Amino acid sequence: MSEGIHRRTTVLWLTGWSMPDAVFDPLRAALPMYRHAGADYSAADSPEAIVGTARAAARALRSDKDGEAPLLIAGWSLGALLALRLAAEGLADGLVLMAATACFVRPKEQSGLGWPDPYLRKMLARLGKDRERVLEDFRRGLFTDEEREAGCESALLAAAPTGVWTADALAAGLQLLRTEDCRPLLPSIGCPALLIHGTRDTICPYGAALELARLMPRASLIAAEACGHVPFLRREKEIAEAIRSWNKELEA
């Protein structure tokens, strides 16, 4: 494929719970050959509004003047759940799923795949009383001890400050994580998918990535060794090269 055609490929970025779209800026800067777009659901007032915002963004990119060019949907965490839903609706030509799961809430005996629902209910109850503490505790769990010592936590705060999402949107995002289950959709998602997942992720455990790789017909998994829940942070060049190489193989 020529460089001119390659440049028309669009990536729709869908961010994780409580995170601004700007968290992807360094990764997007490492992918100048693509056209980039986002979906802002930081002020959504319901789970349906979050899904609807992401769907509207994908449909708009499909219908614009470059609508015949490939559309990749890149989702991180909550955004990956949204990306799976959109792909099942035929709105993606390819998926890049980072720290993804098809179903966040799992029974206690499946702790290697997700979180028990009482954890999320507790977060919801605490949001109205001590929002900042809830966000602080959540962000602390995004990284391994080694990543924190290396400055990843402070780097995330600089790239993605707290306070961007409204209280309603935070609650809606948690409700979506509690209820969304894309597992029945996975066998029908025919587009190729690149999975990038930290092997020491405690938010979406690595077992969730293995499940996705097993159930999706065209999934490729990259294990981000010793990484937590933000496998792209401070690894933007490495992750960008993985995305470019994967997409070039698809084009070939």
From TrEMBL:
Q: Where is the AB hydrolase-1 domain?
A: 44-242
Q: Does the keyword Hydrolase apply?
A: yes
User: At the top level of its lineage, which domain of life is listed?
Assistant: Bacteria
GO MF terms listed in the record are: hydrolase activity
The record's listing under InterPro entries reads: AB_hydrolase_1, AB_hydrolase_fold, AB_hydrolase_sf
Q: Which Pfam families match?
A: Abhydrolase_6 (PF12697)
Q: Would I find DNA repair among this entry's keywords?
A: no
UniProtKB keywords: Hydrolase
UniProt name for this protein: Alpha/beta fold hydrolase
